[in-house]
Amino acid sequence: MQQLIFGLANGSIYALMALAIGMVSSTTGIVNFAHASVVMMGAMVSWWMMVIYGLSYLPALIIAIVVSIVLNIVMYEACVKKLGNLQHNVGWIITLFGASIILDNTARMVFGTEPQAFPYLFEGKMVTIGDANILLHELMMITIAIVIGIVYQTVIKKTRFGRAVRAVAFRPSTAELMGIKSEYIILLCFAMAGAVAAVGGVLIAPITFASYTMTLSIGLKGFAAAVLGGFGNAKGAFIGGLSLGIIESFISIFIPAGIKDSISFVIMIVVIIFLPGGILSAKIFNKNGFASEKV
Amino acid sequence: MLKVENLTIAYGKTEVVHHVSFDIKQGSVVTVVGANGAGKSTILNTLVGLHRAKEGTILYKGEDITKTTPDKLVRKGIRLVPEGRQIFAEHSVEENMLLGAYAEKDAKKIHDRMDEMFDRFPILKERRKQLGGTLSGGEQQMLAIARALMTGPELLILDEPSLGLAPIIVADVFKLLTEIKKTGVTIMLVEQMVDNALSISDYAYVLETGNVVFSGTRDEVKNSDDIVKAYLGNI
Amino acid sequence: MPRFLTKTGSLQKKYSAWFNLLIVVLLLFCLVFPFIAGNYYMRFAIIIFIYMILSIGYDISAGYCGLLTLSAAAIFGAGAYASAITITTLKLPFFAGMLAAMVVTGLISLTISLPAYKVKGHYLALISLGILEIVHRILNDWISLTQGAAGFFLPPWSIFGITLTNFSKYYVIFFFLILAVLFAWGLVKSHWGRDFLAVKNDEIAAAGVGINNRKFKVIALLVSSMMIGVAGSLYASYSEYISPDTFGFYLTILVLLMVIIGGSGTLSGPAFGVVVVMIVPEFFNASPDLKQIVFGALLIILTQILPGGIAGRIKKRFRAIDDNTDIENVGDRPPISFEKFKVNADGPENILEVSNLTRRFGGLTAVGNLDITVKKGTVHSLIGPNGAGKTTTVNMITGIDKPTEGSVTFNGENITGMEPFLSVKRGIARTYQHVRLFKDMRVIDNVAMGGRIYYTYSMAGAIFHSPKKRKEEKEAYLEAYDCLKLIGLEDKANFDPESLSAGQQKLLEIARALCEKPKLMVLDEPCAGLNETEVAELSEIIKAIKNVGITVLMIEHHMSIVMGISDYITVIDYGRKIAEGTPAEVSVDPAVRKAYLGEEVPTC
User: Fold this and answer.
1) CATH no., domain B2-85+153-232
2) Which chains touch C (3 or more CB pairs under 8 A)?
3) What is the pairing mode between strands B29-33 and B186-191?
4) Do A176 and B71 touch (CB under 8 A)?
5) Residue to test with chain B: of A174, A178, A293, most B Cβ within 10 A
6) Helix (H) / strand (E) containing C220
7) B193 touches chain C (CB under 8 A)
8) What ipTM goes with this model?
9) CATH number of the domain residue A215 falls in
10) d(CA B33, CA B159)
11) pLDDT per residue as tens digits for the range C127-162
């Protein structure tokens, strides 16, 4: 039980990261390789606000969200916008990687190299369910992630903005014929992804400690979760993230902690090799796909 | 209403349209005909702002719109029904129409227009919850036109509305276009199906490898040799 | 590649003496360097040499073959540890360690390249990022093997029982650098190097000249990883101490930056980049964080403003100066005519038989139950309105697309669904509706790619410049030159294909197809984008091609050329055949007039 909740809690953060990666990739077709660094920045900024400026949880979180949104917008403007056709010009892999390096090292310079203890929500209060002691914080992680997922899904499915996002995802030029400013929609998606990144970073920081190395230890798992669930849909992101979290938490019973962290990458590689569209693309899940003409 | 002067369009270094000029009068139907590769679609895409002109000016109601972006042109009343319809395959019919009305903020107006469209296209009302990608070619074409009419455009531009449709359906489409014309919408049409297109138009331009080789009223074009030549070559 | 074509331009010739002088000076400088420099600078030079081997190796896969991976540091580390463990734990000699490094890195490259053929660029980046992390974890946490984060100590470096001094280490590593450069040089200046570039530029066109994309991606990554492995083993033996931290993210950035600054897809670029990346920060003496931030910024900026890197820019400049005057001094070439490409007349009368061909996309039938018979030695045109399914048909014939139903028989052999690179070898060449040229190669290289199926020399032959390689390369380029001459583009041989007009590019594709010496040439809208003079020219070329017995299957909208040169025409509409016959028959066919013109057009 304890393992399960722990796995679900971590998994829900992986899911949030996968969700944000999906937001960007659905409209642009690119994978934001700097996303992991934005997650880390979200955590570090809120830690800084709480510990150095003594702000309480919520204002710190809001500032972190704002900073992450700004970071993502700048990233789009500087690294992606000018490259033209992103399917033909894969320069974005390099530029976003460059952005990630800048963020990581800025964090290292500004916030130092020491991992910092990050406060839990509810002061680390525990609840007992059956024979398991569970942090309230972990339950909050799951709840918040699911709420974000549902809100996102509703916005995408039901609102004018959501329709526009899906229209741009289908084909930006056609969307423009409807009067949608595709570039603006893409920018908003980057901004949303930034906000979600900050929330994810803040929620997981108490468990992993806040430090610039979060990029590598946690952030990269977002990619694994996104690959696992398939890029660009909320359901997939959650399935990918949660299953990754649970697998990790149970597998750590059998193998040492260091190796545990590479499990998600092994899973990611296996999925890419055998099911490049994610586990939802497997035949049993895929009844009526649209095929289109090429060349 | 629309006046195009000396328009030159290039993809990279390759010029595909050379110094083309034409104009469209308010309330008329103008057809541009020509074989594949003559540059018809390129001209249309440039008119609606998807592609930048290399040279020349486009005037709409006296205003220079050569550099205006597509989303602004939609708000000015110019709508393109693109080649191959480009229905949003994973949006429902209703959502496709709502997207068509994206530039309109007034919910009541959208609602009224939607009802109006459903009256005109009962088949779309029947299928309003279906995904766009599951419609037949003819239904998709209807939807594409309905979608463009959602903002009540003044100039409706259609890129090969007959493409890939069975002849009976093509006849329906053209009947529909005559009806739309009666409501006072100016129509610009690009077509391969010359005969159908000419039957509803007032004026036509014949385009060959990026040049206007002939222009005239419907009857003038119909009786000219140039058009047969543009299609079937010199036999 | 024959000399007269690489160094044709008079200006380039003028400079080539300077280039050679520069190389000699550099070489001498490197040889005497230990005598004039202190210990610190010598160690610095050694590290630069090792990084040069590393980035030259990395560039073979990333720069030439376009396989953008982020795992260079991991492979370098794996090589270093593999050789360190072999030397220390297994107590084997240095060269056994190097061999172990190559085996291990080769195996790692296979895990990356196995999926590489079916996944897009960013998946490759993700996989390699995963590999980077996994290797890093193994180095840190498999303590019994790697001694973990504390690092791994090696005995002093000895070769054949002789322990090396700092001095001799310098020369040994310099020797390996020269070997690596010669190896890469031989590989790159052979059809292998050009094949890698072709795969990077356009996989469909690459398959269209007979390249098995999958195979070449695997080979590129394998060769590149092994070279990085060699660099790793040198590093381990030289420094006598390795720790996992050396082989992390930072090194990957460094390698990426070296290649990007210098210019990916060039031989001198990576080496150049290493010098810039290693030496420039020495002047600043900045904190490591700041240095990395600058590196990150450089990655962002350079990718956008200097995509070819410094070496790429220089190369382009010299190609632009090049005026091709000397290309006339080809020697005593006999006057060329199309006779050279004559196809002998055996084989069945119906060279291509398509029966019941069907292709459905989801619910849409793009091509339905299509039967076409193409007779040998004819020009057969496929016409029909936009969206009728012509290109889909041709794609199924050439193997780019697989039919849902039906069969394609070529020259008596069933080739239904055969991979394009195999059908090329059976004698089917094609051009594309939207021109697909290899943009990183000169015009002459593009044409010579057409003849690549006739190369027989091995990779070893390529590296050691075997006589067979030299002979075949020369022959291939002379032939390519002949093809260019036939279509009248010989004076553009050294140009970039992008500098040609749309019409010339189309003609160039035909020259490339001709160089494959095909039995059947498939032309997809050869006239699109051509002006009237070019169309007339093209129609003469097609006639000449037909006259030497090559069958032509052509999709075309330009009716005067279709009616003028076709022997037979098949008209399709909505994916079905609506008429067939000679031009005269088809042009009066009511079904055709209806499909094209609508119903009631007056006959003229």
Assistant:
1) 3.40.50.300
2) A, B
3) parallel
4) yes
5) A178
6) helix C213-239
7) yes
8) 0.87
9) 1.10.3470
10) 11
11) 888 888 888 888 888 877 878 777 888 888 888 878
